[in-house]
């Protein structure tokens, strides 16, 4: 299989279980899927069937007592400096080490279902987005701010210069959702995970 037709992401027999006093909850029990470059891939199911847990496992942010018990999550990263494409099994990485932190937000970004819980209430929205951009892209603070401003314009946030310097609690639910979308897009991720990203956005948008 050549690079153009190789999956960008392969999840193989992923199992995520929660170990409770009452017993084991098998939240994800054998998920297998392939996602190709440029593909929009939808996961559909009833509430509580494991959709969000699957995406949290991919980012290695499953909360205890949950944990990945088996399976592979293979991310195919583009070649650098003429080298062959790199394939890394996310399931084998330490969730807290530098490599996983660089992947989380940089190569795989998440638009969460609830943007209010995703932003810190004590830092401006702009500070948080600029910090994320500088963490994953080789730019200075001024360049990062310009990237953030452009992303705000792209997602339709009015008066972006003003909104960038506001706190999340000063924004409406719809504006917080747009800001979260802008943040996820700001680092040009290979994979963008959208967990019901239009929940707070008005129907006409």
Q: What do you see in this structure?
A:
The structure is a single chain. By secondary structure, this protein is of the alpha+beta class. It folds into two domains: 6-80 and 87-97, Rossmann fold, CATH 3.40.50; 115-194, no CATH class. It is 31% helix and 24% strand. Helix 5 crosses helix 7 (173-185). The model has no long low-confidence stretch (mean pLDDT 89).
List keywords for this structure.
205 residues, alpha+beta, four-stranded antiparallel beta sheet, 7 helices, 6 strands, globular
Oligomer: single chain
Element-level helix/strand string: EEHEEHEHHHHHE
CATH architecture group name of the largest domain:
3-Layer(aba) Sandwich
CATH class of the largest domain: Alpha Beta
Number of individual domains:
2
- Gross morphology is globular
Alpha carbon gyration radius: 18 Å
Q: Provide the low-confidence segments as ranges.
A: none
Taking the alpha carbons of the first and last residues, their distance comes to 40 Å
User: How many β-strands, per DSSP?
Assistant: 6
Question: Which structural class best describes the helix and strand composition?
Answer: alpha+beta
What is the topology?
Layout: E1 9-20, E2 23-35, H1 51-59, E3 66-77, E4 86-89, H2 98-103, E5 108-111, H3 115-118, H4 125-136, H5 141-154, H6 160-164, H7 173-185, E6 191-194
Parallel strand pairs: 5-6
Antiparallel strand pairs: 1-2, 1-3, 3-4
Helix pairs in contact: 4-5, 5-7
């Amino acid at each position: 299989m050549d690079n153009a037709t190789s999956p960008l992401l392969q999840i193989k027999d992923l199992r995520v279980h929660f170990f409770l006093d009452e017993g084991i909850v098998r939240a994800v029990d054998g998920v297998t899927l392939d996602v190709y470059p440029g593909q929009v891939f939808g996961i559909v199911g009833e509430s509580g069937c494991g959709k969000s847990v699957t995406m949290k496992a991919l980012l290695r942010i499953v909360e205890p007592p949950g944990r990945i018990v088996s399976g592979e999550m293979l991310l195919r990263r583009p070649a650098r400096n003429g080298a062959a494409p790199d394939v890394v099994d996310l399931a084998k990485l330490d969730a807290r080490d530098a490599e996983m932190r660089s992947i989380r937000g940089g190569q795989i970004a998440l638009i969460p279902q609830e943007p209010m819980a995703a932003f810190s209430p004590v830092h401006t929205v702009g500070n948080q987005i600029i910090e994320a951009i500088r963490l994953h892209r080789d730019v200075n603070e001024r360049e990062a701010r310009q990237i953030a401003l452009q992303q705000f314009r792209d997602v339709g946030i009015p008066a972006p210069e003003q909104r960038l310097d506001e706190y999340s609690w000063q924004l409406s639910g719809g504006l917080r959702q747009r800001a979260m979308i802008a943040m996820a897009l700001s680092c040009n991720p290979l994979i963008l995970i959208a967990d019901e990203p239009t929940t707070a956005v008005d129907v006409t948008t």
